[in-house]
Write a structure and sequence with these properties.
RCK_N, Helix Hairpins, transmembrane helix, alpha/beta, Alpha-Beta Plaits, K_chnl_dom, 3 domains, 7-stranded mixed β-sheet, single chain, Rossmann fold, membrane, transmembrane
């Protein structure tokens, strides 16, 4: 199997990575050696060196190192009562601590792969009703930020990107990411597209966006798919491939630039989620059922009814199960 056909799932990075944990253990090990060497050197008169009968600072460090890592070589021995007492009360516990540290590090290295596989299996078993964001560039990151600001949990988002840097950034933000080519069905299956509640395609190339949409639609015929394309001529192809909504980024930017400064400022405000005016979708409340959009508080742009978007004029009376697309302002502004 080639690299293009592979899919690798990267779970969110733990707060303390393997390197940090290993560094902590090394710090404890050197601390134990330093503490033992200090205890020996302070009571150096109670030790005998078979080489020259004098215990220097280097001899104390040497004695601490070989005593903690092995049982010692017998070339430096405690001879006084105080030195032997220190060996029993201080050096023996330090030796046991060092041994536990060494064994714990060994088991941690051996158990890392097993623990990671267990986390991966648990994640797969719980993967359902999530949102898949394909591409973690500028558009993908913006989409994720909007999803998070709308209350979606990080565990409910899976990112697909073929760039290791993008995947590293996503996992660093607490997201699960899949490394691979999004046009491949094996990569989309690894992200759980067949069980997803929504798919957002925000890749950099239009051909990849269209092929990703087509493959996603084959794997999940009912999932809502939102696609971003650069050129307007590719929007019909994206719709024919199965996209429910298509955003043309180049045309949208052109329209925004062509408006007057005031209109452009309002549109830019709407595009920046969580600040000023926001376009949101929410369930219709009981007191709103049976009323027309014009009679409701706020500005209602349209109604989602049974999976179909009805514009303001065609919505009629609000019904049970409808979702309202409205413009709302930040109460604090």
């Amino acid at each position: 199997m080639s690299d293009a056909d592979r899919a690798t799932v990267r779970l969110p990075v733990p707060p303390r990575g393997p390197l940090m944990r290993m560094s902590t253990r090394l710090f404890y090990a050197f601390g134990a050696i330093l503490l033992m060497a200090t205890a020996v050197y302070l009571d150096r008169e109670g030790y005998r060196d078979n080489a020259d009968d004098e215990v220097s600072l280097l001899d104390a460090v040497y004695y601490a190192s070989v005593s903690l890592s092995t049982t010692g070589y017998g070339d430096i021995t405690p001879v006084s009562v105080s030195a032997r007492t220190v060996n029993v009360l201080v050096i023996l516990p330090l030796r046991l601590f060092f041994l536990a540290l060494l064994v714990g590090t060994t088991f941690e290295v051996l158990g890392t792969r097993t623990r990671e596989q267990w986390r991966l299996n648990r994640w797969r078993s719980r993967l359902h009703g999530h949102t898949v964001v394909v591409g973690y560039g500028t558009k993908g990151r913006s989409a994720v930020n909007v999803l998070l600001s709308n209350g979606l949990a990080r565990s409910g988002i899976v990112v697909i990107d073929n760039r290791p840097a993008g995947v590293k950034e996503a996992t660093g933000e607490g997201l699960v990411a899949v490394v691979g080519d999004s046009t491949r069905s094996i990569v989309l299956r690894e992200a759980g597209v067949d069980r997803a509640a929504r798919v957002i395609v925000a890749v950099d190339r239009d051909d990849a966006a269209i092929l990703t949409t087509l493959t996603t639609r084959q794997l999940n015929p009912t999932v809502p798919i939102s696609v971003a394309v650069r050129e307007a001529e590719n929007a019909p192809l994206a719709r024919h491939s199965g996209a429910d909504s298509v955003v043309t980024s180049s045309e949208a930017a052109g329209r925004l630039l062509a408006h007057s400064p005031a209109v452009g400022q309002v549109l830019d405000d709407l595009l920046n989620q969580g600040k000023g005016l926001d376009v949101v979708e929410r369930p219709a409340r009981l007191d709103e059922v049976g009323r027309k959009p014009a009679e409701l508080p706020g500005l209602v742009l349209g109604v989602m009814r049974a999976g179909t978007f009805l514009r303001y004029a065609a919505a009629g009376e609000v019904k049970h199960g409808d979702r309202l697309v409205i413009i709302q302002g930040d109460p604090g502004e």
